[in-house]
Amino acid sequence: MKIAIPVIENNKEESRISEHFGRAPYFAFVELKDDKTHTFEIEENPFEDHSLGDIPRYLHDKNVDLIVVRNIGKKALNFFEEYNIKVIRGVEGNLKKIIQMAKSNELKDQDYTEDSKCCHE
After folding, report:
1. DSSP string, 71-109
2. What is the pLDDT of residues 59-111, one digit of tens each?
3. At CB < 8 A and 24+ separation, what contacts does 109-114 make?
4. Who's near 61: CB < 8 A, 6+ residues apart?
5. Distance of CA 59 to the CA centre of its chain
6. Which of 25, 30, 54, 108 is a Cys-bridge partner for 3, taking CB atoms 3.0 to 4.6 Å apart?
7. Per residue in 4-27, is it b (16+ CB within 10 Å) or e — as a string?
8. β-strands 38-44, 26-32 pairing
9. Distance CA 103, CA 91 (A)
10. Is the pTM of this model over 0.90?
11. What ranges do the domains of the chain cover?
């Protein structure tokens, strides 16, 4: 399974998840081999100043199966639904924690919104 996680830094497994999906400066790509082994790489977000649909198309083209985010807009969610890519919202922490949660099947979707800080529609 290939997982994409928007992160705010390129600090290996200590990289923290970004509050804003589309404006994250980096994406971590985690390939789970089984419940014990994984590989990962971190890439700069080529669409930090994106147009509608750029990032979902980019992640689809990278054969991502699952997106793990803190927060995401409804329009992006609709694109991922069209691409049949699962989205888990409301996750926080660093890559190490998120990878461990994925391996132990503890990632659960939570409708996370923070209206005072975010303007997603």
Report:
1. ---HHHHHHHHHTT-EEE-S--SBHHHHHHHHHTT----
2. 999 999 999 999 999 999 999 999 999 999 999 999 999 999 999 999 999 97
3. 112/70, 112/71, 113/71, 114/19, 114/71
4. none
5. 9
6. 30
7. bbbbeeeeebebbbbbbbbebebb
8. antiparallel
9. 15
10. no
11. 2-103
